[in-house]
Amino acid sequence: MILCSTCASVHRGLPQQTSQIKSFSEKASVADLLLLKALGNTAANNVLEGTIITSVERLRGSKIRDNYDLQAKSQFIEAKYVKKQFAEDFDTSSGTTVDAALMTAIANSDISSVLSLLANGADVNAHCPGVVEEDTPLHQAIVSNFIIGAHFLIINGANVNANNDKVGH
Ligand SMILES: [Zn+2]
Description:
This protein is mainly α. The protein has two domains: 78 residues, Orthogonal Bundle (Annexin V, domain 1); 64 residues, Ankyrin repeat-containing domain (Serine Threonine Protein Phosphatase 5, Tetratricopeptide repeat, Alpha Horseshoe), CATH 1.25.40. It is built from nine helices and two strands; from the N terminus they run H-H-H-H-H-H-H-E-E-H-H. A two-stranded antiparallel ribbon has the order 1-2. A hairpin with a 4-residue loop joins strand 1 and strand 2. Helix 1 crosses helix 5. The radius of gyration is 17 Å and the shape is globular. Bound molecules: zinc ion. Zinc ion binds next to helix 1. The site of zinc ion has 4 residues, from helix 1.
């Protein structure tokens, strides 16, 4: 997401697993920019503000406005990014677990669903039982040639050294 400097300063105070703020002029890598292109503000807000019903309401109601004070902005940002308070809850009626759904979203190169599932507590390092191997989402991303997804998983804490061999080599 692209943020204004005020919101960026609030994000810098959040835990690193929640927010990693980079300036365009300094730390943003090519992978960061490609991720930003794939998952920009609109797509990310559709997930993280999924329960704030309409775009009108987003602008006029629950969503913060420019003229809100810093405390109000901070409270909104914490609710949105740390507590994931406005994200839609994962639908468990299908019988699928959130971790299995993450593997499917990765296999489908569906970055919005990946964000939604992470917001619902999917484990980036879960091993999904397979016929031969027990892949993690990162293995699946590589197999699926979903490089932006792999980058997104890594910045969300995926272990790049995870083993997928059932016999433990
Ligand atoms: Zn802002």
